[in-house]
Amino acid sequence: MPSPRIIPVFCILLLAGGTAAAGGYFWEARQEYLKLAQSEAQVRRRVAEAEARLKQEQAEVERLRTDRAYVELKIRERLGYAKPGELVFKFEK
User: Fold this and answer.
1) Which of 68, 65, 90 is nearest to 79 (CA)?
2) Does 93 fall in a domain?
3) CB burial of residue 76 (10 Å; 0-12, 13-18, 19+)
4) Number of structural domains, the chain?
5) Do 71 and 64 meet the contact criterion of CB atoms below 8 Å apart?
6) Is 88 part of any domain?
7) pLDDT tens digits for the chain (93 residues)?
8) Of 26, 34, 82, 87, which has the fewest Cβ atoms less than 10 A away?
9) How far apart are CA 90 and CA 93, in angstroms?
10) By the 8 A CB rule, do 72 and 80 touch?
11) How far apart are CA 32 and CA 36, in angstroms?
């Protein structure tokens, strides 16, 4: 029969081992949580940037729908069109 002193020592060692195992598990879980939090922050930043671009593009589309002078300006810029009698000078960048 084991001596009465061995049982408390065994219990303490068992408790220490369980605590160490649980600590290791929670350490890994915390590291995973931090990685996910960082990833979420990056995704939120990308979403905010995409929403800002969308807002700018929607404003551009609305201006193209309503502002004839702006449409003419864009046609001239992008397509190089000119009115009859105008001279167009093109410079290389």
Assistant:
1) 90
2) no
3) middle
4) 1
5) yes
6) no
7) 557 778 777 888 888 888 888 888 899 999 999 999 999 999 999 999 999 999 999 999 999 999 999 999 999 888 888 888 888 777 887
8) 87
9) 9
10) no
11) 6
Question: Is residue 40 assigned to a domain?
Answer: yes
DSSP 36-75: HHHHHHHHHHHHHHHHHHHHHHHHHHHHHHH-HHHHHHHH
Confirm whether 92 is domain-assigned: no
Distance from C-alpha of 23 to C-alpha of 17, rounded to nearest angstrom: 10
pTM exceeds 0.70 for this model: no
Cα–Cα distance for residue pair 23/57, rounded to 1 Å: 51
- Cα angle at 58 between 71 and 60, to 5 degrees? 25
Q: What is the dihedral of CA 78, 81, 86, 90, to 10 degrees?
A: 50
